[in-house]
Amino acid sequence: MQLRFKHAGRKAAKPTTLKDVAAAAGVHVSTASRTLNPITRHLVAGNVALRVERAAQKLDYRPDLVAASLRTGRSRLIGVLVPDIADPVFSPILGGITESLLAAGYSTVIADVGSNQDRQIELIEGLMARRVDGLVLATVSRKDAVVDHCLRRGLPAVLVNRTESQPRLATVASDDAGGMKLAVDHLVALGHRRIGHVAGPQHVSTGFLRRRGFEAAVRKHGLPAADIAVEVASAYSRVEGERVAGALLDARGDLTAIVAANDLLALGVYDALHARKLRCPADISVVGHNDMPLVDMVAPPLTTVRISHREMGEEAARMMLEELAGHGHRERAVTLTPILIVRSSSRKLNPGEAR
Amino acid sequence: MQLRFKHAGRKAAKPTTLKDVAAAAGVHVSTASRTLNPITRHLVAGNVALRVERAAQKLDYRPDLVAASLRTGRSRLIGVLVPDIADPVFSPILGGITESLLAAGYSTVIADVGSNQDRQIELIEGLMARRVDGLVLATVSRKDAVVDHCLRRGLPAVLVNRTESQPRLATVASDDAGGMKLAVDHLVALGHRRIGHVAGPQHVSTGFLRRRGFEAAVRKHGLPAADIAVEVASAYSRVEGERVAGALLDARGDLTAIVAANDLLALGVYDALHARKLRCPADISVVGHNDMPLVDMVAPPLTTVRISHREMGEEAARMMLEELAGHGHRERAVTLTPILIVRSSSRKLNPGEAR
DNA sequence: GTGAAAGCGCTAACAC
DNA sequence: GTGTTAGCGCTTTCAC
Questions:
Q1: What angle do CA A309, A143, B62 make, to 5 degrees?
Q2: What is the DSSP letter of A290?
């Protein structure tokens, strides 16, 4: 389609500067600057301030944040690194972060950086070239080169969703081990004893801590090691879930339940069951983790562990703001408590029942 | 939890400036600048350039984009407005945009702006204060004040996913009417004649054009107006889908199929069917639109129209880059062709069958 | 081909 | 309280 528009390419009018405002108000630029900055507003006489404000209003003055950044060294810009913007887990986190930061006058640059740490550092350099005031990392592995980099460069940073194994930065995350305990307690209460775990990648905290949480919960219930089966997925994806669950099911025909490290893996478990003509929950109960959108509508509706991703984002923003305000040492780790959402993918085992 | 870290609050080292590089290379800043800018690189003698580059390398020099922006008036920053970052439709669009722009050296500021146009304009002003070079709008209504604003301010802008009724800006969107034709053709081929439509909000192009596309398709098949029922939802949400589908079903007990303007609405249709103890597809066939993640896993797997959101984002980025390069008048509207994905929510009607 | 100088728009020390 | 001055780090004329 070929079209033309009269407006297209129209030249932008040169915007009003502080100098224009000052001239219009008959004062010096610095006075205008002081007036328009809430912090220094009180330094200027009421009537003068009023004149400046009126002039600014009349000329539709908009401060140039780029110039202000150059002068002050601060940009009021926060970078956010996510491994995959299309992963539904990160949307609400991003929503929480951006909204909270915006309310405090900060803009957010979201970088979809994948999971290659060298590339991540390259991209961070780009953000630092823009003088971002801080970074929120939703990407970290348990020992993360990006964190090293931020520390070395003195760039304020906050971790969200994932933690390092040795905490070096302020972090907000869900209680991953606690979430698995909820899942295992639930299954044990339903009579399950031979339980498998489709673990997430072990180089990220969620995968690692959930596996450990699973193992601890299972031990707490005194289930013999022989009743338990754990297999690790190399990524949080449906295909990996299917592959790993398949391996688990083929090796251990006696399992009655599988706990997946997240919902995407759990859906992969569904796929594996389907491929083997096994029914859920009749043959195998499945529990996921995250309560991502729509898992209440899949067949069968998924029993899962809900964590408040949006709240996680809001909390991360709050921590970042504290960090920037200089009193960032108060609260270094916030742990959100997950809750169990029981739906139809887990069922009560009849006494003595086995496959 | 209270913790402290030795690294926390560590002072950032003052970064190397162009001046440092110039000094180290024994040349003037302007020469260093010329060397490091690919466009002006050829103006400087080979051996000198080499010296500068080595110095830059050695000092780990990173150009200050803020200073460059102030000087040039360009920021290599693009703003992207989405109505709701948590809506899974926008994730792949954002992924496509950010990746393509990044490859061209542009960063992306994503603004989650809701649907209040006054607020949107306020937020755009914030982006303009950061001197964004352009805006990608995934938010527009059929007559959009934000577009007025961009035009007036001379800010390059590209529309994605939604179009205005009178095209004033470069746009990339799916063939919405065509998508509905696919859906209706499919149902008619299966023997359906009494078909309902849960339409989306009519102030956005997707809702409007899909409804019109539905009506045109139905007319083309010569279905009498009495066989058709259209009801408009006030938002693309599951609850609205349920409400509107409920109204449709209660008023028209003879319908055998419903086409929803998007998948979220289609899932609402499922909810409404469920509440009325109607089965899909046994009693009512349902077709959605968008093929959003997981609709292949709901019960029953949803027949829907797939559009390539990621490609849409990539295309929008390409158009923006063209716009910025000055030859933005070549191709003003790109229409992506959707395809039908048949799953299990639509079934063939037996001859003469009715409810 | 390179250096000198000006200046983007703003803020903040200092002077009065 | 307000004006003066300097300068953030870079690019880009203009000289030579």
A1: 90
A2: B
Chain A: closest CA distance from residue B219 (Å): 26
> Looking at the domain assignment, is residue A225 inside a domain?
yes
Nearest to A146 by CA among A172, A175, A111, A177: A111
A222/chain B closest Cα distance in angstroms: 30
Structural domain count, chain B: 3
- Which of the nucleotides lies closest to A73 (Cα–C1')? D8
Q: What's the pTM?
A: 0.90
For B164-175, the pLDDT digits (tens) are 999 999 999 999
Q: What is the pLDDT of residue B355?
A: 58
Q: Give yes or no for residue A6 having a pLDDT over 50.
A: no
* Same-domain check for residues B288 and B191: yes
* Residue B12 pLDDT: 57
Residue B3 has pLDDT above 90, yes or no: no
Q: Give the structural domain span for B23.
A: 18-63
Give the tens place of pLDDT for each residue, A188-247.
999 999 999 999 999 999 999 999 999 999 999 999 999 999 999 999 999 999 999 999
Residues A288 and A199 in one domain: yes
B342 part of a folded domain: no
Largest CA distance in chain A: 90
Judge if B79 and B118 occupy the same domain: yes
Tell me whether residues B86 and A85 touch, CB distance under 8 A: no
Cα R_g (chain A), whole angstroms: 27
Query: Is residue B102 in a domain?
Result: yes
**Helices A176-189/A205-220 angle, 10° precision:** 40
- Same domain assignment for residues A166 and A92: yes
Residue B355 and residue A350: Cα distance in Å, rounded? 40
| Same domain for A196 and A143 | no
Structure tokens at A10: 């129209």
